[in-house]
Design a protein that fits this description.
Blueprint (H helix, E strand, L loop, with lengths): L2 E6 L11 H8 L6 E4 L2 E5 L10 H15 L1 E6 L2 H9 L10 H6 L7 H4 L2 H6 L5 H5 L3 H7 L2 H10 L17 E10 L5 H19 L1 E12 L10 E12 L2 H13 L7 E13 L16 H14 L6 E4 L9 E4 L20 E8 L1 E3 L2 E3 L5 E11 L4 E4 L2 E4 L2 E10 L3 E9 L5 E8 L2
Antiparallel strand pairs: 1-3, 1-4, 2-3, 5-8, 6-7, 6-8, 9-10, 11-19, 12-13, 14-17, 15-16, 17-18, 18-19
């Protein structure tokens, strides 16, 4: 069996150590079997080794995350052995025979044995190995059954049973800062730990966050005008679990923020989450993820320069080509109606303003007489759309018959015949085909 013990350690920085319940939320991304035992968290990871590429890769990932959270990780064949080694700050419980590694540990590293430390010391026992050397019959009569049970479980002679932690439906974690923070960018250090916990919760629930909220509580010595605290909500363009991306977006917003009073406590909430598709692990590259870095970069630019600095094309349900697509700073609406279908293929290039064509024998001319190939495709509407022209209000209503035309010198063109005042009509060039 493969067990890991995560032991929170005091950290000489601006963030207090992570509590076991919060640490367990982060650990659930690696295995569904996580238990909080006393001041530590135990993981039974045997079933997850193949998923993460073997024991070495899983140990590297858990170790890197544990160091960021300010926790010590120890590995061993049993859970109590991993916990005892973590208290001794010995990481690798597979470096030698388990019995030899445990025999030299002090009594206080197993809680069931530590309760009888004073009695055991009077008979000359200082290590777990010396306790195991005592006659079992006398120990069973003199001490409670929990002592022998804990020893047998630690040495792998009895199976271990724990109450496994279940994932909560929502994510909400708090962190008390070890020092009062006066500048908003300095909140990122403590917030980063909470973001790692949220990323683990998202990965375990196969969700992605589209919004998260960071709250901070002001110091008790604050002025009344500062209030009790503040909050900042960050939104993403698409669901993601990437803690690094969360931290970069949060850092950009914190750089533009000024605290009204020193902050002493942080709270992070996953405000909006959505199901997320897992990454394709096939040998064939997945084209859907090739533009991910561009989207992340655009979000960072928007966070730094403002919401209106990035414009995105957004399709609208409008038959008029010039209003079918709009550039807006708002996020495209998910599930929006697709644009209406046209009887003719739409052109590759569209003119900003339709160009009126001359006519000869009631036929349009553009670098020669045009040959009408397909059409007409009637587009009519826009009576609801009002605009301003030359200081007066005008309507954007159109009545057009579109044609796919061919010019001997200009190639394929998109032209339309519009109805003007009365029965008068005119031809216009509206687009080119590549």
């Amino acid at each position: 069996m493969h067990w890991a013990a995560l032991l929170p350690l005091p950290c000489p920085d601006s963030a207090s150590p992570i509590e076991p319940p919060a640490l367990a939320l982060w650990a659930l991304q690696f295995t569904p079997r996580v238990a909080a035992v006393e001041e530590a968290v135990l993981l039974e990871v045997e079933a997850s080794l193949r998923l993460f590429g073997g024991a070495e890769q899983l140990q590297a990932r858990v170790g890197a995350g544990a160091r960021e959270l300010g926790a010590l990780v120890a590995w061993a064949p049993t859970g109590l052995a991993a916990l005892a080694l973590a208290r001794q700050r010995v990481e690798n419980g597979f470096a030698g025979p388990l019995q030899q590694m445990l025999d030299g540990l002090p009594l206080e590293h197993l809680s069931a044995v530590a309760r009888h430390q004073a009695t055991l010391a009077r008979v000359g026992c200082r290590t777990l190995g010396q306790v195991r050397a005592l006659p079992r019959g006398g120990m069973a009569r003199r001490f409670d059954a929990a002592l022998l049970t804990a020893l047998d479980q630690a040495y792998g002679l009895r199976p271990e049973t724990y109450d496994w932690i279940r994932l909560p439906e929502t994510f909400q974690a708090r962190l008390e800062l070890m020092a009062r923070v006066e500048n908003a960018p300095e909140l990122l250090f403590g917030a980063r730990r909470l973001l790692l916990l949220m990323s683990g919760w998202l990965a375990a629930r196969q969700l992605g966050a589209t919004a998260f909220t960071l709250r901070w509580c002001h110091d008790s010595m604050r002025s009344r005008a500062a209030g009790t605290g503040g909050e900042l909500t960050i939104r993403t363009a698409e669901p993601t679990q990437n803690a690094e991306h969360f931290a970069r977006l949060l850092g950009e917003h914190l750089d533009q923020l000024e605290l009204l009073a020193p902050a002493g406590e942080l709270e992070l909430l996953a405000s909006a989450v959505e199901p997320i598709a897992q990454q394709n692990r096939s040998l064939i590259p997945d084209a859907a993820h090739q533009g991910a870095s561009t989207r992340l970069a655009l979000e960072r630019i928007q966070a730094r320069l403002g919401e209106d600095c990035i414009r995105r094309p957004q399709l609208t349900a409008d038959h008029r080509l010039e209003w079918m697509q709009q550039w807006t700073a708002a996020e495209p609406r998910r599930g929006a109606r697709p644009p209406p279908q046209h009887g003719l293929p739409l052109p590759t290039w569209v003119l900003d303003e339709p160009l009126r064509l001359i006519e000869r024998d009631h036929r349009p001319i553009y670098q020669g007489k045009l040959q009408l190939l397909l059409g007409p495709d009637r587009v009519e509407g826009g009576w609801w759309h009002r605009g301003e022209q030359d200081g007066r209000e005008v309507t954007r209503n159109v009545q057009r018959d579109y044609w796919l035309a061919r010019s001997e010198h200009a190639g394929l063109l998109w032209v339309f015949q519009a109805r003007l005042a009365g029965d008068e009509t005119a031809w216009f060039l509206h687009g080119h085909y590549a």
